[in-house]
Protein backbone atom coordinates (compact mmCIF):
# COMPACT_ATOMS: atom_id res chain seq x y z
CA UNK A 1 0.00 0.00 0.00
CA UNK A 2 1.36 3.43 -0.87
CA UNK A 3 2.42 5.42 2.15
CA UNK A 4 0.29 8.44 1.24
CA UNK A 5 -2.82 6.23 1.01
CA UNK A 6 -1.90 4.67 4.33
CA UNK A 7 -1.53 8.08 5.98
CA UNK A 8 -4.95 9.08 4.61
CA UNK A 9 -6.45 6.03 6.32
CA UNK A 10 -4.71 6.82 9.62
CA UNK A 11 -5.79 10.46 9.47
CA UNK A 12 -9.34 9.25 8.93
CA UNK A 13 -9.20 7.54 12.33
CA UNK A 14 -7.75 10.60 14.07
CA UNK A 15 -8.13 13.80 12.00
CA UNK A 16 -4.96 15.82 12.35
CA UNK A 17 -6.94 19.08 12.43
CA UNK A 18 -8.14 18.16 15.94
CA UNK A 19 -4.62 18.01 17.37
CA UNK A 20 -3.30 20.70 19.69
CA UNK A 21 -2.02 23.75 17.84
CA UNK A 22 1.37 23.22 19.52
CA UNK A 23 1.68 19.59 18.46
CA UNK A 24 3.69 18.02 15.62
CA UNK A 25 1.37 15.35 14.27
CA UNK A 26 1.48 13.74 10.83
CA UNK A 27 4.11 12.13 8.63
CA UNK A 28 7.54 13.04 9.99
CA UNK A 29 9.85 10.75 8.04
CA UNK A 30 9.33 8.97 4.75
CA UNK A 31 8.53 9.05 1.03
CA UNK A 32 4.77 9.38 0.45
CA UNK A 33 5.12 7.40 -2.79
CA UNK A 34 6.82 4.43 -1.12
CA UNK A 35 5.10 1.06 -0.75
CA UNK A 36 4.53 -0.24 2.77
CA UNK A 37 3.77 -3.87 3.61
CA UNK A 38 3.68 -3.76 7.42
CA UNK A 39 3.52 -1.25 10.25
CA UNK A 40 4.52 -1.12 13.91
CA UNK A 41 2.77 0.78 16.70
CA UNK A 42 4.57 2.26 19.71
CA UNK A 43 4.31 5.10 22.19
CA UNK A 44 7.95 6.22 22.15
CA UNK A 45 10.23 5.67 19.18
CA UNK A 46 13.66 4.68 20.50
CA UNK A 47 16.65 3.20 18.64
CA UNK A 48 15.54 -0.20 19.99
CA UNK A 49 12.06 0.23 18.52
CA UNK A 50 13.50 1.32 15.17
CA UNK A 51 15.71 -1.79 15.10
CA UNK A 52 12.77 -3.99 16.04
CA UNK A 53 10.61 -2.51 13.27
CA UNK A 54 13.35 -2.95 10.65
CA UNK A 55 13.94 -6.56 11.72
CA UNK A 56 10.20 -7.27 11.48
CA UNK A 57 10.08 -6.00 7.89
CA UNK A 58 7.94 -2.97 8.73
CA UNK A 59 7.97 0.05 6.45
CA UNK A 60 6.20 2.38 8.87
CA UNK A 61 6.42 3.13 12.58
CA UNK A 62 3.38 4.85 14.05
CA UNK A 63 4.84 6.56 17.12
CA UNK A 64 2.23 8.14 19.36
CA UNK A 65 4.71 10.74 20.65
CA UNK A 66 6.28 12.77 17.81
CA UNK A 67 10.01 11.91 17.65
CA UNK A 68 10.69 15.18 15.81
CA UNK A 69 9.22 17.89 18.00
CA UNK A 70 11.82 20.64 18.07
CA UNK A 71 13.70 21.52 14.85
CA UNK A 72 16.76 19.32 14.31
CA UNK A 73 20.02 21.26 14.04
CA UNK A 74 21.64 18.26 12.37
CA UNK A 75 20.97 14.59 11.60
CA UNK A 76 24.00 12.44 12.39
CA UNK A 77 24.51 8.76 13.15
CA UNK A 78 26.95 9.62 15.94
CA UNK A 79 24.67 12.12 17.70
CA UNK A 80 22.58 11.54 20.82
CA UNK A 81 19.83 8.94 20.89
CA UNK A 82 17.07 11.40 19.93
CA UNK A 83 18.80 12.19 16.63
CA UNK A 84 20.05 8.65 16.15
CA UNK A 85 16.53 7.17 16.20
CA UNK A 86 15.55 9.43 13.29
CA UNK A 87 18.80 8.61 11.48
CA UNK A 88 18.16 4.89 12.00
CA UNK A 89 14.69 5.21 10.45
CA UNK A 90 15.98 7.12 7.43
CA UNK A 91 18.84 4.64 6.97
CA UNK A 92 16.44 1.66 7.21
CA UNK A 93 13.82 3.31 4.94
CA UNK A 94 11.34 3.36 7.83
CA UNK A 95 8.62 5.99 7.59
CA UNK A 96 7.44 7.60 10.83
CA UNK A 97 3.94 8.92 11.52
CA UNK A 98 2.65 10.46 14.77
CA UNK A 99 -1.04 10.91 15.71
CA UNK A 100 -0.46 12.14 19.32
CA UNK A 101 -3.11 14.66 20.44
CA UNK A 102 -5.24 13.97 17.34
CA UNK A 103 -5.67 10.42 18.66
CA UNK A 104 -6.37 11.83 22.13
CA UNK A 105 -9.02 14.24 20.87
CA UNK A 106 -11.10 12.02 18.59
CA UNK A 107 -14.17 10.33 20.03
CA UNK A 108 -13.25 6.75 20.82
CA UNK A 109 -9.62 7.80 21.16
CA UNK A 110 -7.20 7.75 24.08
CA UNK A 111 -9.03 10.32 26.22
CA UNK A 112 -12.34 8.47 25.98
CA UNK A 113 -10.66 5.12 26.62
CA UNK A 114 -8.94 6.35 29.78
CA UNK A 115 -12.04 8.08 31.19
CA UNK A 116 -14.18 5.01 30.51
CA UNK A 117 -11.90 2.85 32.71
CA UNK A 118 -13.74 4.56 35.58
CA UNK A 119 -17.15 3.48 34.36
CA UNK A 120 -20.02 4.39 32.05
CA UNK A 121 -21.35 7.92 31.82
CA UNK A 122 -21.49 11.04 29.67
CA UNK A 123 -18.31 12.95 28.88
CA UNK A 124 -17.42 16.28 27.32
CA UNK A 125 -13.98 17.59 26.29
CA UNK A 126 -12.06 19.68 28.80
CA UNK A 127 -10.87 21.71 25.83
CA UNK A 128 -12.91 21.33 22.61
CA UNK A 129 -10.87 20.95 19.44
CA UNK A 130 -10.49 24.26 17.63
CA UNK A 131 -11.17 22.57 14.26
CA UNK A 132 -14.39 20.91 15.43
CA UNK A 133 -17.28 22.72 13.84
CA UNK A 134 -20.92 21.97 14.43
CA UNK A 135 -23.34 19.95 12.33
CA UNK A 136 -23.09 22.62 9.65
CA UNK A 137 -19.58 23.85 9.08
CA UNK A 138 -20.55 27.41 8.13
CA UNK A 139 -20.32 28.41 4.48
CA UNK A 140 -22.93 30.51 2.73
CA UNK A 141 -26.55 30.58 1.64
CA UNK A 142 -27.03 31.88 -1.89
CA UNK A 143 -30.39 33.48 -2.70
CA UNK A 144 -30.83 34.22 -6.39
CA UNK A 145 -33.77 35.61 -8.37
CA UNK A 146 -34.32 34.20 -11.85
CA UNK A 147 -37.08 34.11 -14.47
CA UNK A 148 -39.27 31.07 -13.87
CA UNK A 149 -38.44 29.48 -17.21
CA UNK A 150 -34.68 29.63 -16.45
CA UNK A 151 -34.85 28.21 -12.94
CA UNK A 152 -34.14 24.54 -13.75
CA UNK A 153 -31.08 25.32 -15.89
CA UNK A 154 -29.70 27.66 -13.22
CA UNK A 155 -30.16 25.10 -10.46
CA UNK A 156 -28.33 22.46 -12.50
CA UNK A 157 -25.41 24.84 -13.08
CA UNK A 158 -25.18 25.70 -9.38
CA UNK A 159 -25.25 22.03 -8.39
CA UNK A 160 -22.54 21.16 -10.90
CA UNK A 161 -20.34 23.90 -9.39
CA UNK A 162 -20.66 22.47 -5.87
CA UNK A 163 -23.73 24.15 -4.38
CA UNK A 164 -26.70 22.42 -2.80
CA UNK A 165 -25.01 19.87 -0.51
CA UNK A 166 -26.27 19.40 3.04
CA UNK A 167 -24.98 16.55 5.18
CA UNK A 168 -25.55 13.26 3.33
CA UNK A 169 -27.72 14.92 0.68
CA UNK A 170 -26.96 16.87 -2.46
CA UNK A 171 -28.99 18.88 -4.99
CA UNK A 172 -30.84 20.54 -2.10
CA UNK A 173 -32.75 23.73 -2.87
CA UNK A 174 -35.80 25.82 -2.06
CA UNK A 175 -37.72 28.11 -4.39
CA UNK A 176 -40.78 30.34 -4.17
CA UNK A 177 -42.70 32.34 -6.78
CA UNK A 178 -42.87 36.11 -6.99
CA UNK A 179 -42.56 39.12 -9.26
CA UNK A 180 -39.43 41.05 -10.06
CA UNK A 181 -39.25 44.52 -11.56
CA UNK A 182 -36.53 46.63 -13.16
CA UNK A 183 -35.96 49.41 -15.73
CA UNK A 184 -32.89 49.09 -17.98
CA UNK A 185 -30.84 52.31 -18.28
CA UNK A 186 -28.88 53.67 -21.21
CA UNK A 187 -26.06 51.29 -22.17
CA UNK A 188 -27.74 48.20 -20.73
CA UNK A 189 -28.36 45.13 -22.87
CA UNK A 190 -31.40 43.55 -21.17
CA UNK A 191 -32.36 39.94 -21.87
CA UNK A 192 -35.96 40.92 -21.10
CA UNK A 193 -37.59 44.34 -21.68
CA UNK A 194 -36.24 47.46 -23.33
CA UNK A 195 -34.01 50.38 -22.32
CA UNK A 196 -35.99 53.05 -20.50
CA UNK A 197 -39.10 50.91 -19.98
CA UNK A 198 -40.26 49.37 -16.72
CA UNK A 199 -40.36 45.57 -16.85
CA UNK A 200 -42.22 43.15 -14.59
CA UNK A 201 -41.21 39.49 -14.71
CA UNK A 202 -42.56 36.30 -13.12
CA UNK A 203 -39.50 35.15 -11.18
CA UNK A 204 -38.45 32.45 -8.75
CA UNK A 205 -36.47 32.97 -5.57
CA UNK A 206 -33.98 30.07 -5.42
CA UNK A 207 -31.99 29.28 -2.25
CA UNK A 208 -29.01 26.89 -2.04
CA UNK A 209 -26.16 26.28 0.41
CA UNK A 210 -22.60 26.91 -0.75
CA UNK A 211 -19.42 25.61 0.95
CA UNK A 212 -16.82 28.31 1.42
CA UNK A 213 -14.36 26.34 -0.68
CA UNK A 214 -16.74 26.35 -3.67
CA UNK A 215 -17.93 29.96 -3.47
CA UNK A 216 -15.90 31.33 -6.41
CA UNK A 217 -16.89 28.44 -8.69
CA UNK A 218 -20.56 28.74 -7.76
CA UNK A 219 -20.68 32.49 -8.38
CA UNK A 220 -18.97 32.03 -11.74
CA UNK A 221 -21.54 29.36 -12.68
CA UNK A 222 -24.37 31.65 -11.57
CA UNK A 223 -23.22 34.50 -13.82
CA UNK A 224 -22.66 32.14 -16.75
CA UNK A 225 -26.06 30.41 -16.51
CA UNK A 226 -28.27 33.32 -15.48
CA UNK A 227 -30.07 34.99 -18.40
CA UNK A 228 -29.87 38.48 -16.90
CA UNK A 229 -27.05 40.86 -17.71
CA UNK A 230 -26.95 41.78 -13.99
CA UNK A 231 -28.12 38.76 -11.94
CA UNK A 232 -29.81 39.70 -8.67
CA UNK A 233 -28.63 37.61 -5.74
CA UNK A 234 -27.90 37.78 -2.02
CA UNK A 235 -25.05 35.97 -0.30
CA UNK A 236 -25.55 35.23 3.40
CA UNK A 237 -22.74 33.93 5.62
CA UNK A 238 -23.80 31.02 7.81
CA UNK A 239 -22.49 30.45 11.32
CA UNK A 240 -21.66 26.84 12.25
CA UNK A 241 -24.31 25.12 14.32
CA UNK A 242 -23.19 24.65 17.94
CA UNK A 243 -21.55 21.26 18.36
CA UNK A 244 -22.97 18.70 20.78
CA UNK A 245 -20.40 18.58 23.59
CA UNK A 246 -21.19 14.89 24.15
CA UNK A 247 -19.93 14.04 20.66
CA UNK A 248 -17.37 16.81 20.15
CA UNK A 249 -13.66 15.95 19.95
CA UNK A 250 -11.09 17.71 22.08
CA UNK A 251 -8.42 17.40 24.75
CA UNK A 252 -9.19 15.60 28.00
CA UNK A 253 -12.59 14.51 29.26
CA UNK A 254 -14.94 15.52 32.05
CA UNK A 255 -16.92 12.36 32.74
CA UNK A 256 -20.17 12.35 34.70
CA UNK A 257 -20.54 8.80 35.95
CA UNK A 258 -23.87 7.08 35.50
CA UNK A 259 -23.26 5.43 38.88
CA UNK A 260 -21.01 7.31 41.34
CA UNK A 261 -18.41 5.23 43.18
CA UNK A 262 -15.80 5.70 45.88
CA UNK A 263 -12.26 6.78 45.13
CA UNK A 264 -11.02 3.37 46.25
CA UNK A 265 -13.38 1.59 43.86
CA UNK A 266 -12.37 3.76 40.90
CA UNK A 267 -8.66 3.45 41.67
CA UNK A 268 -9.12 -0.32 41.63
CA UNK A 269 -10.82 -0.22 38.24
CA UNK A 270 -8.13 1.99 36.74
CA UNK A 271 -5.29 -0.04 38.23
CA UNK A 272 -6.65 -3.28 36.81
CA UNK A 273 -7.14 -1.69 33.38
CA UNK A 274 -3.64 -0.20 33.26
CA UNK A 275 -1.96 -3.18 34.88
CA UNK A 276 0.41 -1.03 36.94
CA UNK A 277 0.63 0.29 40.52
CA UNK A 278 -0.99 3.71 40.96
CA UNK A 279 -0.30 6.80 43.01
CA UNK A 280 -3.58 7.72 44.73
CA UNK A 281 -4.35 10.82 46.76
CA UNK A 282 -7.47 11.65 48.75
CA UNK A 283 -9.96 9.96 51.07
CA UNK A 284 -10.51 6.36 49.86
CA UNK A 285 -14.19 6.74 50.77
CA UNK A 286 -14.61 9.94 48.73
CA UNK A 287 -17.83 9.72 46.70
CA UNK A 288 -16.92 10.43 43.06
CA UNK A 289 -19.53 11.53 40.54
CA UNK A 290 -17.32 13.43 38.10
CA UNK A 291 -13.88 12.57 36.72
CA UNK A 292 -11.46 14.86 34.87
CA UNK A 293 -9.25 12.59 32.77
CA UNK A 294 -6.27 13.19 30.51
CA UNK A 295 -3.69 10.65 29.26
CA UNK A 296 -0.05 11.50 29.81
CA UNK A 297 0.22 14.75 31.73
CA UNK A 298 -3.04 16.59 32.39
CA UNK A 299 -1.80 19.20 34.85
CA UNK A 300 -2.33 22.36 32.81
CA UNK A 301 -5.49 21.03 31.24
CA UNK A 302 -6.99 20.53 34.70
CA UNK A 303 -6.54 24.17 35.68
CA UNK A 304 -9.94 25.73 36.34
CA UNK A 305 -11.73 22.36 36.01
CA UNK A 306 -13.95 21.31 38.92
CA UNK A 307 -14.27 17.54 39.37
CA UNK A 308 -14.33 15.02 42.19
CA UNK A 309 -11.43 12.99 40.79
CA UNK A 310 -8.48 13.89 38.56
CA UNK A 311 -7.07 10.98 36.54
CA UNK A 312 -3.88 11.31 34.53
CA UNK A 313 -0.37 9.93 34.17
CA UNK A 314 1.64 12.52 36.07
CA UNK A 315 1.09 15.78 37.90
CA UNK A 316 3.26 18.35 39.66
CA UNK A 317 3.56 17.89 43.41
CA UNK A 318 1.96 21.19 44.42
CA UNK A 319 -1.02 20.72 42.11
CA UNK A 320 -1.67 17.27 43.58
CA UNK A 321 -1.23 18.64 47.10
CA UNK A 322 -3.71 21.44 46.46
CA UNK A 323 -6.35 19.08 45.03
CA UNK A 324 -6.08 16.61 47.91
CA UNK A 325 -6.22 19.39 50.51
CA UNK A 326 -9.40 20.67 48.87
CA UNK A 327 -11.04 17.28 49.29
CA UNK A 328 -10.57 15.98 45.77
CA UNK A 329 -9.17 12.67 44.59
CA UNK A 330 -6.06 12.19 42.45
CA UNK A 331 -5.07 9.02 40.56
CA UNK A 332 -1.75 8.91 38.69
CA UNK A 333 -0.75 5.92 36.56
CA UNK A 334 2.52 7.08 35.04
CA UNK A 335 2.78 9.09 31.82
CA UNK A 336 2.93 6.40 29.15
CA UNK A 337 1.09 3.83 31.27
CA UNK A 338 -2.08 5.83 30.61
CA UNK A 339 -1.38 5.73 26.85
CA UNK A 340 0.27 2.41 25.97
CA UNK A 341 -2.73 0.15 26.84
CA UNK A 342 -4.66 1.91 24.05
CA UNK A 343 -2.37 0.53 21.33
CA UNK A 344 -4.32 -2.76 20.88
CA UNK A 345 -7.52 -0.71 20.54
CA UNK A 346 -5.81 1.52 17.99
CA UNK A 347 -4.63 -1.52 16.02
CA UNK A 348 -8.20 -2.82 15.74
CA UNK A 349 -9.38 0.56 14.49
CA UNK A 350 -6.63 0.51 11.86
CA UNK A 351 -7.56 -3.02 10.81
CA UNK A 352 -11.12 -1.83 10.17
CA UNK A 353 -9.86 0.62 7.50
CA UNK A 354 -8.16 0.18 4.13
CA UNK A 355 -4.89 0.11 6.09
CA UNK A 356 -6.03 -3.20 7.57
CA UNK A 357 -4.64 -4.92 4.50
CA UNK A 358 -1.19 -4.50 6.07
CA UNK A 359 0.34 -6.56 8.85
CA UNK A 360 0.36 -4.56 12.08
CA UNK A 361 2.70 -5.23 15.01
CA UNK A 362 2.79 -3.66 18.48
CA UNK A 363 6.35 -3.00 19.60
CA UNK A 364 7.73 -5.16 22.39
CA UNK A 365 10.78 -2.92 22.83
CA UNK A 366 8.62 0.10 23.63
CA UNK A 367 8.29 0.52 27.40
CA UNK A 368 7.97 3.16 30.10
CA UNK A 369 11.38 4.61 30.98
CA UNK A 370 10.71 4.18 34.72
CA UNK A 371 9.49 1.15 36.60
CA UNK A 372 8.43 0.37 40.16
CA UNK A 373 11.29 -1.31 42.03
CA UNK A 374 9.87 -3.14 45.02
CA UNK A 375 13.31 -4.44 45.99
CA UNK A 376 14.72 -0.93 46.18
CA UNK A 377 11.94 0.11 48.56
CA UNK A 378 13.00 -2.44 51.20
Calculate the terminal CA-CA distance, rounded to whole Å. Answer: 53 Å
| Structural class assignment | alpha/beta
**What fraction, in percent, of the residue positions are helical?**
25-40%
* Sequence stretches where pLDDT stays below 50 over 5 or more residues: 132-136
Roughly how many Å is the radius of gyration?
Answer: 28 Å
CATH homologous superfamily designation of the largest domain:
NIF3 (NGG1p interacting factor 3)-like
Task: Could you tell me the CATH topology label of the largest domain.
Answer: Udp-n-acetylmuramoylalanyl-d-glutamate--2,6- Diaminopimelate Ligase, Chain: A, domain 1
* Widest beta sheet: strand line-up: 5-12-14-15-16-13
| Mean pLDDT reading | 92
Second rung of CATH, namely the architecture of the largest domain: 3-Layer(aba) Sandwich
Biggest pleated sheet: 6 strands, mixed
Count of alpha and pi helical runs: 11
User: For the record, what CATH class of the largest domain applies?
Assistant: Alpha Beta
Number of strands: 17
- Could you give the order of the helices and strands? HEEHEHEHHEEEHEEHEEEHEEEHEHEH
The domain tally reads 3
Percentage beta strand: 25-35%
Shape: elongated
GO molecular function, one term: metal ion binding
Pfam family, one: DUF34_NIF3
Family: Belongs to the GTP cyclohydrolase I type 2/NIF3 family.
Organism: Phycisphaera mikurensis (strain NBRC 102666 / KCTC 22515 / FYK2301M01)
